[in-house]
Amino acid sequence: MLRHVTELVNQHLDEVAALILFGVGFTMLLLDKNLIKKIIGFSMMDSGIYLFLASYGYIGGLRSAPVYTNGVTDPAAYVNPLPAGLVLTGIVVSVSVTAVMLGLTVRLYQRYHTLDMDEIAEQIRKEGK
Amino acid sequence: MILAWWQNLPLFLVLCPLMCGVACSALRGKASRCVTAAMCAAESAGMAVLLWYTASGNVSFTYAMGKIGAPFGNELRAGPAEALMGLGFTLVLTLSVTGGNRSLTEDVESKRMNLFGAMIGLLTAATAAIVFTNDLFTAYVFIEITTLSACALIGVTNRGRALFSSARYMVMNLLGSGLFLLGLSMLYALTGQLLFPQLASAVDALIAENRYSVSMYLSFLLMGLGLCIKSALYPFHTWLPDAYSNATAVSGALLSSLVSKLYIFLLIKIALRAAGEEAFIHRIGDVLFLYAAVGTVLGSVHALYQRKLSRVIAYSSVAQIACVYLGIALGSGEGIAAALFYILAHSAAKSMLFVTSHKLRRACGGADGLEDLRGAARRSPLAGLAFLAGACSLVGIPGLGGFAAKMYLAQAAIGGGGWRMPALLGLLAVSTTLNAAYMLRTALILYSRDKPAGEAGKPKARDAAFAAATAVMIGLNLFLGFCGRPVIELIHRGLALFS
Q1: Which CATH number does A2-128 carry?
Q2: Cβ–Cβ below 8 Å for B141 and A22
Q3: Given A15, B88, B152, B374, which is the most exposed site by the fewest CB atoms within 10 A?
């Protein structure tokens, strides 16, 4: 049983790593109270998915990026460019999301002088009364 | 093949708002508001033209960007269903932005007004893109764009509360998009396709060979779960009440009637066009039904206990969204058509409630507590009338959109049979009773004869834009109530063209 599992993990090392990263990031984003740590969690979660996608785009062997310079027209010589394109788009999206989140965090910190979500909620509750 | 001129519309409906958004950020307050309003009106007109051509010819068409075909290209697709939903969304957007124009000048600093316009542009572009896209990854990108613009729309007032709600909204929505992206990546790894038609045939092939079935269902489940979190299905609704009630009236209207509904439409598109009912709705239908049933009841129960007007409206959204999911969980074509009709009816009523609630609060010196709002509707008669109409529509008084929506939902359940029929009919009865309990109670408080507690707001110049928008909104609700039949037939025709 254990051997079977080890074999499986060895065969799919990228996917396992990607899912662990996703899990860690997801949990941090969900459960951590600190806003900055939440953002770190978000970045980890997305990186996990990008690793997953990129590992599918990569095909082992002597394949190169699909840049047509050496006159080789056989598609078998190149890796699939589509997952790389998806990852690049995804990175752009997550960078902008991170920027907006950081901007919000700065605003909240300037106003409440803490990064703890619970403490901010407490202060807002007091403010309202 | 040469496209007819109107077949280029979907692309322009996505691109123009983006350009207008960019232009708005460079313009000054007043000019940017004019550009935004004009853009919204033009967008609705474009959708209407598209609806006219697709519905009269009963056609759907695909627009390949740059004429690059599958599997590498990116496609938009439009048919009667897409055009109708797009028209519904943009019409509500236009009416909310015009009707809430004055409330915006009160809530938003004038130097930030242009940024508000930019966010509206971004949201409109994302709406059109999610409605029309034929590609799963494009859908993901525009989901994130919707999230970003919605987050900015919540925080635009720059009050501490609004910023905090905006941060909470962002966190929950990022969890949802993360799950969606993971599901999408897994599905792509299994099938190698992202465009819906190719994806559907790849999924069918995998089902026929009985390969990777667990991973495939898991990927659909992850995507569905992500979209459920983002559209605030009951146990994942925690971000919603704060976000809706702390935002300005226009933002609340847009969030409840556009943003959360878009995700449901996308879910329906994925279910019907990419997965096939067998793979998606029949597998997770029972679970979805359970969540929706709990949400329908508990959302309304929460609304009963709220003491603030904006929070009553916000919690009623939770209950109504769960009702939409009930239709989807039926799994039949009728159920999904009823869900789409419910989306339209609820958007028309809820946006009206949000926009008028601001006027009512203003009439009582900005108070939000229900007790402080006694008699508010007598001070501001038009807003009171519109609120009453919206509340009656949500309860399901015959003649208004909400009644037709609930009737089609019940008809779909009766047509489907099985254990879901008595369950759904019972749930509809319970939810209608609860809706009546909190909505009519609120309306009665607003119309009570007691002297309002707060200072009367300063008498202001007539707000013609608000009056016009409110009149059109009431008309829209009446139209959906009295002429629901052609609309639902149109939805059926559009859904028939989906596969």
Answers
A1: 1.10.287.3510
A2: no
A3: A15
